[in-house]
Amino acid sequence: MLAKAMKRAVYVMSLVFFMFIFAVAGVLYFGEQASGDLEHWGDLGSALLTIFGLVTLDGWVDLLKKVDSSGVTYSRLFLIIFILIGHFIFFNMFVGLVIMEVERMTKAREEESLQERKAAQKRKKQKINNEAADWESGECRLSQGSESRVLHKTEWETPVKK
Prior knowledge:
The protein is mainly alpha-helical. Helices cover 76% and strands 7% of the residues.
C-alpha cells in the first residue's frame, strides 16, 4: 500500500517538477522587461499559473499569439513541446491517478457494505435459530408493542375461551 502511494507521489512530483522547469524557462525566454510578455511570464508565480493553464489547455492559442508577437525564436516549439508532454502525458497520468483512487475508495465502500450485509444476515439467522430452539423447547415469545412475554407450551396449546 505504501509502495503504491509512493509511486503515485513520484508521478505527481515529476509533473510538478516538469512544470517548474518549464516555468523557469518561460520566465527566462519570455519574461524580458523590454519586449516580453510580463503578464504571463513576468515572474515565477505568473509563469507557474500560465504553465498550469497550458496543461489544462485553457487559452493556449491566445498565449501562443502573445508569445509569437514577442519575437523570441522557437517560441512555438517551446509551447507545443510543453503542451504535448504536459497535457497529453502528465495531465492524463494525473487524471488516471485520481480515477484509480476513486475506484479504490469505491471498492472499499462496497466491501464495507458487503460486510455489513453479512453481519445483518448472521444476526437474522441467529434470531431465527433462537426462535426455533425456543419453539422446540416448548416456549413461544410474544411481543406486542413494548411488552414481551414468554408462553410455555401448556399455555399456547389451551384453547382461548370467549
